[in-house]
Amino acid sequence: MSGLVESGRSALRSALERLGRGWGRVQERRPLSHDLLESDDAYLVVFDAPGVRGEDVDVTFLDRTVEVSLERFRDFYDGHDLVFPGRGVSLSGSVDLPRDADVTPEGANATLTRNGTLHVEIPKRGGSGDVDVVEEDD
């Protein structure tokens, strides 16, 4: 009987793993969730960015479009095996600012917060370029 139980557990673990990997691929194809906010001086785009480090984030601003790509890594935990690999590891998203947005990349900044959001602020008035990413201190 224990052989039957072990076979059932193995089949269940295999099914969960396939399901989890499929769900991770769905997450990688879906754009990152975001909010677009505006003040008198700047636009602020807030992306969901859980589980990433600052060096694993790439932010580019070009022609009123903010593009973000993230690489997440799974931590290993002593004494634990991965059963359901359900989180995507390569995530991306983009946001188009309004057509009438007059913005500049000079002075733009990106901050990765401790609570897992990425704040990209683009000042009003100007052109295109890369944006540096800063990680909040603990």
From TrEMBL:
UniProt cross-references to Gene3D superfamilies, sorted A to Z: 2.60.40.790
SUPFAM superfamilies for the chain: HSP20-like chaperones
Signal sequence residues: none
Residue ranges annotated for the SHSP domain, each copy included: 23-138
Pfam families for this protein: HSP20
InterPro entries for this protein: A-crystallin/Hsp20_dom (IPR002068), HSP20-like_chaperone (IPR008978)
Family the UniProt entry places it in: Belongs to the small heat shock protein (HSP20) family.
Name assigned to this protein: Hsp20/alpha crystallin family protein
Organismal lineage: Archaea, Methanobacteriati, Methanobacteriota, Stenosarchaea group, Halobacteria
